[in-house]
Amino acid sequence: MKPVHHLDDATLIRYAAGDLDPAFATIVASHLAVCDHCREQARNAEAIGGSLLESQTPVTLASDAFARLSKRLDEQPEAQIRTETPPIETSPSVPAPLARLIGHDLDAVPWRTVAPGVKRHMIMEQDGKSLYMLNIGPGKAVPEHGHGGSEMTLILRGAYRDGMGLFKQGDIADLDEHVEHQPVVEPGETCICLVATEAPTRFKGFFSRMLQPLIGI
Amino acid sequence: MAVLALKTSDIDGLSPQQQADAIGKIASEQCRTSFETLFNHFGPRIKAQMIKTGADQALSEDFVQEVMLRVFRKAHLYRPEMGAVSTWIYRIARNARIDQLRSRSSAPFEDIDGMDFVSEDADGEANAIASERAMRTETAIQTLPDDQRQIIVMAFVEDRSQSEIASALDLPLGTVKSRMRLAYGKLRTVLEDLR
Question: A50: which chain B residues are within 8 Å (Cβ-Cβ)?
Answer without folding.
Answer: 83-84, 86-91, 134, 137
